[in-house]
Design brief:
The chain has 14 helices and 21 strands. By secondary structure, the chain is of the alpha/beta class. It has two domains: about 170 residues, 3-Layer(aba) Sandwich (Rossmann fold); about 210 residues, CoaB-like (Rossmann fold, 3-Layer(aba) Sandwich). Helix 1 crosses helix 9 and helix 10 crosses helix 14. The longest helix has 17 residues. The radius of gyration is 25 Å and the shape is elongated. The two termini are about 25 Å apart. The protein binds cytidine-5'-triphosphate. Cytidine-5'-triphosphate binds next to helix 12 and strand 16. The site of cytidine-5'-triphosphate has 15 residues, from helix 12 and strand 16.
Length: about 400
């Protein structure tokens, strides 16, 4: 696809966008307006894209073969990010006095624009007219979002969408509607807390809501995977198109996970209780004169580590979660090695973040290639967005391999 980088402060985010698009296996060819080059250099964009960045309409190197026509047609999609008010105005009017506008005028491919500008410019009647015109012409938009602006003390609608959001929207436009890249892949997912009985009416539990694991199951099923979701007790509807297994304790969960193997991919999002009561009562424990009953705990099986260490039917990709309240990356990287998984999704669950039970998540994806680990830090996203991003990463890593 072709990425047109317009001249706004958000241009620096477009460098990250190139990486995000490449993560999804999308080849990116960059074009920069003259104003964009005030913010980022063609050299950086070209290096990230692995292809020279195009800047000039009258470029001797590419124009001998009508380069702007080739750039406009020899692509599946054009993304304009940041789309400035000026660039949108020119396009709405059909101007073609530089390479970016000439490409936009000459193309017959879908165009996705990610506007970015000062909130007053976005709210201006002229911009509104241009956006409405472009929408009528079939141009798609993502954002802008609301939030803080580059200018001090300014906030409002005008922030460019995050690179991950733009990459997901571009990917969706590139993919035929029915493309289901995980068709034929079996994915096993654990979610939710576990309940460890003290007696028939009492249990030990934790604050996990199951939302993240359920969102991953829904996203993987949408991508065509054959999903088995094994969840502890949660207050959520079963995701559509997923084989659902409800369990209570860690030991039930392990038994169901083992029964569901083999799988191509296993994702352990459950917040499994580390301990259970050594001698859970068969009857309700009564208050007695002898005082408070002692609760001796013993360790539960580690489901993730058990599966990651299986020899013959270990899933090709084993993904764990690391819920930490301190030294997030260091602890999560140690956990990755200790448990023998391939990727770990690390999140900070200290109470101030509101992650446990909340709707948003700040995650860092740690991946292992042999002895090397790589950390990719994602911006704050909803749990659905985290799920989509994780599934996209799975697709770009193993989704294209034959089943
Ligand atoms: N996990 C598991 N079985 C357990 C404990 C954890 O499958 N008995 C999985 C979780 O689903 C998660 C990962 O292991 O994918 C890490 O869970 P976490 O609670 O962060 O780690 P713990 O092993 O409990 O380590 P600690 O509590 O010491 O941080």
């Amino acid at each position: 696809m072709t990425l047109i980088i317009g001249g706004g402060i958000a241009a620096y985010k477009s460098l990250d966008l190139i990486r995000r698009l490449k993560d999804r296996g999308i080849h990116v060819r960059c074009v920069m307006t003259r104003a964009a080059q005030q913010f980022v250099t063609p050299l950086t964009a070209g290096a990230l894209a692995d292809e020279r960045c195009y800047t000039d309409l009258f470029d001797a190197q590419s124009e001998f073969d009508a380069g702007h026509i080739r750039l406009a047609r020899d692509t599946d999609l054009i993304v304009v990010a940041p789309a400035t008010a000026d660039l949108m105005a020119k396009m709405a009017q059909g101007h073609a006095d530089d390479l970016a506008t000439a490409i936009l005028l000459a193309t017959n491919r879908p165009v996705l624009m990610a506007p970015a500008m000062n909130p007053l410019m976005w709210a201006n009647a002229a911009t509104k007219r241009n956006v409405a015109q472009l929408a009528r012409d079939g141009i798609r938009f993502i954002g802008p979002n609301s939030g803080e602006m580059a200018e001090a003390n300014e906030a409002g609608i005008g922030r460019m969408s995050e690179p991950l959001e733009i990459a997901a929207a571009a990917d969706a436009l590139l993919r035929p509607p029915q493309a289901r890249p995980l068709t034929g892949k079996k994915i096993l997912i654990t979610a939710g807390p576990t309940h460890e009985p003290i007696d028939p009416v009492r249990y030990i539990a934790n604050r996990s809501s199951g939302k993240q694991g359920f969102a991953i199951a829904a996203s993987a099923a949408e991508a065509g995977a054959d999903v088995t979701l094994i969840s502890g007790p949660v207050d959520l509807d079963d995701p559509p198109g997923v084989q659902m297994i409800h369990v209570e304790s860690a030991r039930d969960m392990l038994a169901q996970v083992e029964a569901a193997l083999p799988a191509d991919i296993a994702i352990f999002a459950a917040a499994v209780a580390d301990w259970r009561v050594a001698h859970a009562g068969d009857q309700k424990i009564k208050k007695t004169a002898t005082g408070i009953p002692p609760l001796a705990l013993i360790e539960n099986p580690d489901i993730l580590a058990t599966v990651a260490k299986r020899r013959h039917d270990r899933p090709k990709l084993v993904i764990g979660f690391a819920a930490e309240t301190e030294n997030l990356i260091v602890n999560a990287t140690l956990k990755l090695a200790r448990k023998g998984c391939d990727w770990i999704v690390a999140n900070d669950v200290s109470p101030a973040t509101g992650v446990m039970g909340g709707d948003r998540n700040t995650v860092h994806l740690i991946t292992r290639m042999g002895k090397q680990t790589h950390v990719d830090s994602w911006p704050v996203m909803t749990k659905e967005e985290v799920a989509d991003a994780l599934v996209a990463k799975i697709v770009s890593t193993i989704g294209q391999q034959p089943a």
